[in-house]
Amino acid sequence: MRELLADAERLLAAARALSADEAAARAEVQRALSSLRARSARADLAAIPVARLKDVTEGRLRLGTLEQAGYTTVLDVLDATPYALQLLPGIGARTAAQVRAAAAQIARAAEETVAVRVDVDRHDDAETTALLVALHRLVAAGPDLPRAVRAARTVQDGLAAPLPAARPARGRLRMLVAGRDGRRQAREAVAEVARLLTEADASGARLLLAQASVDLLRPQASGIEAWADFELRPPEYYNLLAEIAALEPDRVAAEGFLPDAVSARVRAQELDDAHRRVSLRGYQAFGARFALAQRRVILGDEMGLGKTVQAIAAIAHLSARGDRHFLVACPASVLINWTREVESRSTLKAYRLHGPDRGAAVAEWTRTGGVAVTTIDSLHRLPVPAEVGVGMLVVDEAHYVKNPAARRSQAVAEWCARTDRVLFLTGTPMENRLEEFRSLVGHLRPDMVPAVRGGDAAAGPQSFRRAVAPIYLRRNQEDVLTELPDLVMVDEWEEFSPADLAAYRAAVAEGNFMAMRRAAYAVPESSAKLQRLLELVEEAAGNGLKVVVFSYFRDVVAAVHRALDGRAHGPITGDLPAAARQRAVDAFTAARGHAVLLGQIQAGGLGLNLQAASVVIICEPQVKPTMESQAVGRAHRMGQTRKVQAHRLLTADSVDQRMLDILRDKTKIFDAYARRSDLAESTPDAVDISEQTLARRIVEEEQQRLALPPEASPPEEPGRVTRTCR
């Protein structure tokens, strides 16, 4: 019994230590954030005229003397001492105190509302670096930290009362002097402590607390490490910062302008995160709750707001509550993205029900449960036993099933009929496509189709959303990403089509590094990358956004141009005169609404301002990391008024993945200040890895992985690597 209570005290001490360490880490973020906000607020105060002090005091102050003495802004007053103010004619101690109090009130309001931004081009900014270093400790602790903190709170709340009450049970003498009631209470308390320890062991709380404590007590990261980590996974930093800094947007906008009754119902919905491995922004948590509370809905958030993560959060909740099988139907171009996201953002297993191994995957998914991912086009022939209950069906890019006569639409309709919970995802604003929306509603809630009227759409997006609130939720970037982030980076993982895979294998055998890099576009008609690019362009068109597409290769740019049927400006290539380049950019900028500009990344990534674009698509990863940064920077720069989305198209198990693995390691050891200097920005070769070294290493690794002997080849050419004997 004594050992039992000692064990409980050790567990309680561990829980208290973790809570204290986590609170200290958050306090460090708050201190860094306060410093950054104070600096930004001072800049704002320097632009606020001193006359605004009258607004705070309802016009009671006479400010003529201050203005005549050169106090023209609120910052001037805030920086003045009471003594200096009292030296002015007509200003006594009382007036000086009132003036300073009014200025302080405006300063507090400015600090609370000031925009918090992380400028990736300012590695030398001390306040921002301090903030990222403080955030790094919490981000590096991983997605289990919030769960560990809750476990610590549960342990503390559970043991707070019974552990002191059980003290007489530590020895016979104590029990003897405790009296009859004392002994009874002590035995009951010991039983309660034993129960709580059993629960802690069953839930893995001990290991969770121990690992979280170790993570929080690691040595502080350097500024360079924090910046490098931030650029590798900015969403984790942005989400945590938004939570700690309370940067969430206006509640009405974050909830999609839903009626109060619907919003209240959604907010009351619980959201279990036991199987989720990613933190959510407030609007994302609301989206997941909306899907759960309303059961059969369309989530229509603008691209870049994390619809996939919200769907995974809803699935993870249902899994924690006992559902075992889930099904995702999506275009083939995002199938691998879904499998990767499910397994990285949750503890659930993802099964790819597509391709030659589909039968085995179906059998394994049926037996063990998890998230099955298949294509919309193959949904009609998915051999799932009727007795397998699907906890939720998710249909991504749901506007693809708008035609009721199409086989894919009929297959979705059949699955909707056999599934209680259904979530449609689409980034296309449905108020602009009323007939499509009515078709989607017909799959989910046929009873609501008559309620979808053209008049509601004509009255504006907010009126439309309120009218269809039980089934449709949409948020725009400008409504919910009010401060962070300025830049959303998305890796779009695809798989080779059979024809492209054949071209890739031939390029690997030949040792042709450049051919390997563009093999995903070898047969444009069946290219998964090109198909995904067209989907991104279409979604951007639906939102009226301008898109710039970059590739290193001229033939890839040409293939994109043909796939767009010539509906693009440019292309900007290396041999295009500077005046012609600028004319293409000017025409792109002047176009009303959606437009597309094409260019080679080495030509379009330097010297051009593309603030009109808010979507950047990079067709393949670049050998020089700074080349990608420069290309994205053409759009994500001063003068850009919208959030910028940068999509990088990648092929799994290929040269793309090998390049990212190598360059990620290289990026971590870049000297941040040299890398951000004017020389580094203008001369990528000064800091980037040798192209020939990278090419040789990747070609050899891919030849070994694919068991392809190198073909006999002529003397080495640019982009061609021959294997050397060792």
Automatic annotation (TrEMBL):
Protein name: DEAD/DEAH box helicase
Domain Helicase C-terminal: 529-695
InterPro entries noted in UniProt: Helicase_ATP-bd (IPR014001), Helicase_C-like (IPR001650), P-loop_NTPase (IPR027417), SNF2-like_sf (IPR038718), SNF2/RAD54-like_C (IPR049730), SNF2_N (IPR000330)
Alphabetic keyword roster: ATP-binding, Helicase, Hydrolase, Nucleotide-binding
Annotated spans, Disordered: 703-726
CDD domains from the UniProt entry: DEXHc_Snf (cd17919), SF2_C_SNF (cd18793)
GO molecular function per UniProt: helicase activity; hydrolase activity
SMART domains: DEXDc, HELICc
Superkingdom of source: Bacteria
Known EC number: 3.6.4.-
Boundaries of every Helicase ATP-binding domain copy: 288-447
